[in-house]
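Reviewers of the previous submission asked for a worked example of the structure-prediction workflow described in the proposal, so we include one complete record here. The input consisted solely of the amino acid sequence. No template or homolog information was supplied to the procedure at any stage.
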Amino acid sequence: MFWFQFKTKYGYIKVEYSGKNLLTIDLNAGFQKRDKYYKVYKGLKDDLSEYFSGGKTDFNKYKIIQDNLTEFEKKVLDKIKLIPYGNTRSYSQIAKDTGHPKACRAVGNALNRNPVPIVIPCHRVIKNNEELGGYSAGIKWKKILLGLEKYIKIRNID
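From that input alone, the workflow returned the following structure tokens.
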């Protein structure tokens, strides 16, 4: 397993991967001293740079390791990957799309287990009433990411 950290104007992100397979992205990593395992996954780092510069980046080319997820969680995350940049879907829309129309809360739980936020854009899932809902990395990050995609204006991110 390898990892690298990526500095944004919002803080450090830690990316863990094995070969060309993504394992995790931690949006709240903070600075970590590099160790002997440090190695940059250049393509992903370039794509993250593009994304944080406001560019539309296609992360679908990356293989994501989801061994510790249930079949339902995998199904939810597969639906989330289909949400276009700058768009959103509701928890209930995702529940319906997975064939479980009453499983809105289970969709939220599945999103909370997303190992690679940004790459699987769970920040694009909001409530039916267009309120943001929750986010595993904190609502501040959800506002930042939706703001980068111009879905919302970033006013007060705290």
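The chain has two domains: 2-63, 69-148. We consider this example representative of the routine output the project will generate in years two and three.
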